[in-house]
Structures are given as C-alpha cells and as structure tokens.
Amino acid sequence: MDLLVIGINHKTAPVEIRERVSFSGEELGRSLRKVLEHPEFTEDMILSTCNRVEIYATTRDPEMGIVALKNFLAEYHGVSLEEFEQSLYIHSGSGAVRHIFRVASSLDSMVVGEPQILGQIKEAHSLAVSHNTLGIVLHRLLHRAFHVAKKVRTQTKIGNSAVSISYAAVELAKKIFGTLEGKAVMLLGAGEMAELAAKHLVAVGAQRVIVVSRTYRRAVDLAMTFDGEAIEFDGFRESLKEMDIVISSTGAPHYILGPEDVVGVIKARKNKPMFFIDIAVPRDIDPGVNEIENVYVYDIDDLQEVVDANRDRREREARRAEEIVEEEVLKFYHWYTSLDLVPTIVSLKEKFEKIRRREMSKYVASFVRITEKERKSLEALTSAIVKKILHDPITFMKSPDLNTDTAEYVNAVRKLFRLDAEGGGQAKKQGRDEGV
Amino acid sequence: MNIWFFKLTVALYLLGTFKYLLFIILLRELLAKIAFISLSAGFVLHSITFILRYFEAGHIPVTNLHESLSFFAWAILGVYLAFYWRYRIKVLGPVVATLALILMIPAMALPKEILPLAPVLRSYWLPIHVVFAFLGNAVFALAFCTGIMYVIQEHQVKSKHIGAISRRLPSLGVLDEINYKALTFGFPLLTVGIITGSIWAQYAWGSYWSWDPKETWSLITWCLYAALLHQRLTVGWRGKKAAIMAIVGFFAILFTFLGVNLLLTGLHAYSNW
C-alpha cells in the first residue's frame, strides 16, 4: 500500500493546460467514485482550484497507480496524455505527505501565505467524505494537514502582512488611525483598485463613503454599492475636510491637489490626520502634500514597496514554516508505516507476552514454595493460552482476502489493544501522535 | 526587611525588562506574557516594600532620594498597569519597564537607611502633596514614553519605511489618544500637587509661594502642560507637536524632580540625598 499524489499547478503549467484537466464542482463526486473503480486504488480525493488540479490516492502498487492516474486524467477529460504529461508532478510516500502539508500551509501557493487554499482543501475533503472515498489513511492525512496549516499560521507570521496594493493601503490606514471605525472615505475617480481598497476599508469599519467621478452616473452607481453618496467632481474640495481617507485614481494629466489646497483643509479639520492613497498614474496628488503635518500621502510606488517588503518577509517566514512541515511529515510517516501488517503483529505478540510474564511473576511471587518443575509447567500453560488466543486474529489479518482493508484492520487492532499507547517495538514512538 | 523586598523587586523588574526587550526583538507572545507577569509581581513586591518601610519609619517613605526614585518608579508602573488594562499595548511595556529600571538602579545604589524626619516635614500634608505630585509625574512619564514612540512611528510612516520598527510600534492614532488621555489625567494631578504644596508651604514656611527653585520649576512644568492642553483643545494641536511637547514637558519634570535637588539649593533640600 502506498500514498500517491499526481497533479499540475500554476508553477508547472499555464492556465490553458490547467483548465483542460480541471474538475468542475458538480462532476467532482462522480469523478471521485470513478477513480475508485480502478482496482488499483483504495482511497482518493481530488483537489481542483484555479491554480491546481491534484488527485490523492492510496494504491497497492505505486507504479501501476501512477500510470492509472495519468490515464484517468487523460481519458476523463478527453485530452491526450502527451499534452500535459510534461507538466505533471508525482509524489509518493513521504513525498506525498510533504506535498499536501505544504499545499495546505500555503507554502506552495502563488502568493505564499494566502489563506484561501486551506478552505479549498477542506471543501475537497468534505466532498470526498460525502462520497465515501476516504479511508483511514487519507482521512488522517487530511486532518494532519489541517493541523499543520493551523500550526504554521499561528507559529509563523506567514499570513500577517499585506501582499496586495489594496490590503497594503488598509494596513497603512490602520497604522495611521489605529481603528478605522467610523472613518470617512472619499473615492476620487473610480477604478477597480480604488474600489477594492474602499471595499476593504469598509470591511474593517470605515463608515461613510463618498464617490466623486467626472461622470456623475458612474459615481452614483458605485456609491450605491457602498451605501454612500455621490458628488460632482467640481464640488469635491468642499467635502474634503470631512474625509479621513482619500483614494485617488482619476485620469487627470496633472496634479489635482496641491499642498496649498490641503493646508487649508487640515486647518479646517483641526489637524485631524488625513491619509491620501494616490493610485493614479500620472499622479493626482502633489507629493509636496506629504510634507504637511498630520497628512500622509502614499502613491502607487510607495504602496508597491510596502507590498514587496511584506513579500520578502513572508518568504523568510516560509522557511520557518518548512521546518514545521518537515517535523510533521516525520510524525505522520511514523504512524503511516506502522500500519504495515508485520510490525503490528509483532507488537501485538509482544504485548501479550508482556502481560503473560507480568501476571506469571506476580503469581509465582505469591507462593512461598514453588518447585522449578511447577513453574515450568505454569509457563507452558500460560504460553499456550496466549498463543491460542492470538492464533485466530493473526491468521485473519494475514489472510489474502483482507487485502483491500488491511490498513483499516491494522488500525483497529492497534486501537483495540492500545499498541500505540504503551505498545512495544517500533510503535512506541507515535504514541503522542495518536488521537488527532 | 523592606530592603530585602526592594532588592527582590529590582530583580523582578530586571527580569521583566530583559524579557520585554527579547520580546521586541523576537515578537514571541510568550515572552511578553512572562515579562508582564514579572513586572506585575515586581509591582506587588514594590508596594509591600513601601508598606513595610512606612511602618518601620512611621511616615510615608518619600523623604530622601532613594525613596523618591523608588516611589516614582512605583507610580509609573502603577499608572502603566492602569493604562494597560484599558489599551493593551504590549510595546509600551518594554519602554516603561526600562524607565522604571533606570530609576530603580540609582535608588539601589543610594543610601537606604531610614533617617529621622526633618521637623518641617512632619505634617499630614506630606503624603497628600507628594502622592499627587508623583502620580501626576508618573502619568506624564507615560505620555513621554508614548511621545517618543509617536515621533519614531510618525517618522516611519511619513518617510514610508514600513519595516521592522513600524510593525512593532502601535498606530499613530492610539499613541496620540494616550497622549491626550495622559494629559487630561496628569494635568489635574499636577495642579493639585502644586496647590497642596502651596497650602502646606503656608503652614510650614509662612508663605504660599516663595520662589524657591523647586517651586519655580514646577510652575514652568505646569505652564508647559497648560500650554499643550490649551493648544490641543483650541486649535487641535495633536500628533507630532503634542508628542514633542510631552517629551519636553517630561524633561522639565525630571529637572524639577532631580536637577533642582542635585544642582540648585533651596527650601526643598531636606537631605544630602
């Protein structure tokens, strides 16, 4: 039995190829069952997002499994294998464990640290659960993956800093105002990025939104989406003194606000701070405005710099995250290898033998006099009992017709006899790993 | 006995400060927690130190430099803990802890014997005057700390260096709010401190105001904060200007408290130390 993952992502293939092998939501359940129709596979899960398509499966024969999964992808989507075979990556065993841990922790994402991927994996997981295609291995693997992702998020600062212009703007606004609760935002000109930034600001508490546009209709439409007001372009200066944050993105060929305008505004506001976010190119706001006290102006390049710095920081944090992943891969793999039949039978026997000896010595100690001969016959008796008790379960576990479910039974036996909690042999180490 | 508690207090402050400094570098929450607990425990021991010393001396122990420095540090931490309860600003901890430690170290080196109280100080005005003056000073010490942080943070945001330093400091809005709150609490305390001092002077020296250096300097300090409060309320001075004023004001306080005693002579000089 081996764990396999085969996939394609934004690093290995352009979207033209990815979209041809991706699975849509409605058909995913059917696809999951279809993989299991292959006799090679015992469990499977499919993760299909705009950046990656991956199939996770457990198989009896990895080599055959890989071929089968490749062919499944080609046949299922009606694409010839040659078209995308080059872009595929394949991991098995601990490589596959590492892969899903990294994906779940967002270490393999386009923007390292973005949290969406974890939600997508959770969806894929619950879909597989509802179609009953998960067995003990994938089930536990996924749960460990969620655990690792959470650990990475709490123990590193990988997701802490803004890595998009609009989030960087929000982050800066928080640095200036502390809370954005009740702050007033003016959208000067309406562009996609300005709209996005405004949306983020409202999401964290900004209350009043005023939209100014040269085309009044457009301003009214946009204002509706924020439950705000629209004003004519010519009148925006009068409203400036009520604004805390101004996001400017007009198509004006020259500055529309200079220091002389803002000095008056800030005086009228009794020095309450203002934050200008100038994402227009060419710029709308004279950089000289930044020199005024309690006024902060960030243009698109300044914001980009913040974003770049944050990205670097994420990369550094990612290195720490990789260490956490490595640790967890090792833990999982310990458990995973213990699912093999032989070590389980060995520790089962060891456990019974231990019990037998303990009880024997207790019993023997309670007699003042016991002859060597009596002791030997007692040994023989107890040994025979243990052997007879274990005979049937061990024969059953070794029987060939158990093949598909070995892991399930092995796991059940390990739990029934608590082989991981106190067990002997190599199973000892993953005791602390149990129960998650 | 009180000396023993005092030393233990310093040890806890030292531990707290050290952990806090590590926290600023590594940003591990656990460190901040340990530091905060050490500091709080230190504060409790510090309070016990005062109570013990009060009973040993028979009067409030703020009559020599060792005692005053120690009391000042205690007041600063007390005010900080009260503010922490409201604002939860972790980064203020390292700054306040360092400040307290800076006051405690000379206090530790100075003579610690309990001396008989000068006759002129034997008055129930002593605790009233001193407690108000010190509490006011402590609140302004906090404003001083946030003022420094404000100036640094403002520079970072203005010059667009949003890096390691900026990330560790609180937002400008919060820092300015604390500055304002400190002013509204500190100013009345300082005012009451000066008024009670003046009344006491009438009893002790026979005149409400005799322009002794300590009186003059505390008046200068009071005027600085009065100006800041006035400007804040009328023309909306805030941000950097207010932060700088808080820093300047605190230097005036330090001079009134220490400089006058060490460099100048006057009616307020009761002991060599």
Written description of the protein model:
The complex is a heterodimer of chains A (436) and B (273). Helix content of chain A is 54%, strand content 13%. By secondary structure, chain A is α/β, with parallel strands linked by helices. In chain A, strands 7-6-5-8-9-10 form a six-stranded parallel β-sheet. A four-stranded antiparallel β-sheet of chain A has the order 2-3-1-4, with helices on both faces. In chain A, helix 10 links the parallel strand 6 and strand 7. The relative contact order of chain A is 0.09. Chain B is mainly alpha-helical and 273 residues long. Chain B has nine helices and no strands. In chain B, helix 1 packs antiparallel against helix 2. The interface between A and B is medium-sized, with 24 and 22 residues.
Q: Which secondary structure elements does this structure contain, and how are they paired or packed?
A:
The complex is a heterodimer of chains A (436) and B (273).
Chain A: E1 2-9, H1 15-18, H2 25-37, E2 41-48, E3 52-59, H3 62-77, H4 81-85, E4 89-92, H5 94-104, H6 116-130, H7 136-155, H8 165-177, E5 184-188, H9 192-203, E6 208-213, H10 216-226, E7 229-232, H11 236-239, E8 245-248, H12 259-268, E9 274-278, E10 295-299, H13 300-338, H14 341-365, H15 372-398, H16 406-416
Parallel strand pairs in A: 5-6, 5-8, 6-7, 8-9, 9-10
Antiparallel strand pairs in A: 1-3, 1-4, 2-3
Helix pairs in contact in A: 5-7, 5-13, 6-7, 7-13, 8-9, 14-15
Chain B: H1 2-26, H2 29-57, H3 65-87, H4 92-109, H5 125-158, H6 164-168, H7 172-204, H8 213-234, H9 239-263
Helix pairs in contact in B: 1-2, 1-4, 2-3, 3-4, 3-5, 5-7, 5-9, 7-8, 7-9, 8-9
